[in-house]
Amino acid sequence: MRAHETTHHVQFVPGSEFKRRAAEVVANPFLKKSFRGAMDFLMMKRAAQFPDPELLERQRDLAEHIRRYSLARLPELLEQLEVNLKKNGVQVHWAETPDEANAIILDICRRHDAKLMVKGKSMVSEEVELNHAMEAAGIDALESDMGEYIVQLAGEKPSHIIMPAIHKTKQQIAELFAEKVPGVSYTEDVDALIQIGRDVLRKKFMEAEVGLSGVNFAVAETGTICLVENEGNGRMCTTVPDVHIAITGIEKVVEKLEHVVPLYGLLTRSATGQAITTYFNVITGPRKPGEKDGPKEMHLVLVDNGRTQAFADEQLRQTLQCIRCGACMNHCPVYTRIGGHAYGTTYPGPIGKIVSPHMMGLGATHVLPGASTLCGACGEVCPVKIPIPDLLIRLREEATHEAKPGHAPMFGQGAGKTAFASFAFKGFAFLYSRPALYRLFTWAATRFRFLTPANQAGWTKSRTPLTPAKKSLRDLLAERSKH
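^ thats the sequence. predicted structure below, dont judge the formating
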């Protein structure tokens, strides 16, 4: 498969809007307080799960080795996965683009005359905008994860990959349910709100012709799909409807079941501070003769959507190690102050900054790698040791430079390059490579420093103006030598 730049993202917010949206959140003290409080709580819960730093590092090393090993053998493992899934009775489909993924799923739904699809949590389905494709075809796609259900009712995108509705207060959810759910009165009682959602969803599980889920790990050796969840809705989606469709990115494959255990142990503790989730589903195929539950038919859709572009580059391939725990978001000083919606992409925060350019091209996302302090917190907490700061620097370079000879370009490469920046760097290179001219420039800059403009393009949007010193280093050294 080849990488591509898609235009299918219905709700994508252009990168040019990022600064405006981020500024709106920063100017809202209520949202800032809510995000910071939630992230502090999650950081505290994670820290409590890893009391022994040395043990944590050994676990992270093991998880990193498993992911790197899996990615090094990715083509081979994908073929092995397909063979064993078919042996288990699972129909396997390959999708290069979001449109292809949606077309495959839509075709399955039409063959079963489906009117309702009930969905477990799946970030890849968000990535390909599956709900919009189903709606356009006249098929209801109902989210059954409580957080996803809330943001779907609100007509919004998830703001966090683990906790989609973390930006919502119970008052906002109470108003939303009272407005959108027939026969429901306003209540701020959290237990009552959860029960309202359960009552709606329970009926839909029984009515839906198709259930859809994501995939946390796909095991090549056994043709097994593993699904992590807390609410039981994933188990309902994968067993009650007659047809189960699982959708995942091609990077989620591992070789053996024993490789899942270390990854699972770090995933749950890094994501929500839980030692283990309420449910861990191991799915090996559709219902067999004599079994009393499970779907009659099962499909797996393997999605590329730019992942092979990352895979082709040895450094950028590390992006695909991600197990979608969200720890990098919880610890990011930028995300914790602006939330997920400011990014305008399916995957926000540090992981979104390095994965979205491959899925959507640098033309649409080149501003995101720059939305980082490079403090390194994301890399320090990543359970599979993705060097996120290094990858952000690499993507910043790709965004402002044309492809080097012999290197395959990223889609949209050079999109962040501006005429002003090019002129500035060329001017500096011209001066710096000519000693006499450079000495003349520094002499003039120090003597006429009062002429320095107060507005210095993007620099002064968030910083004080740069003003030359009264004396250059050369002048100071010359004065010292006289004494």
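The chain is about 50% helix and 10% strand.
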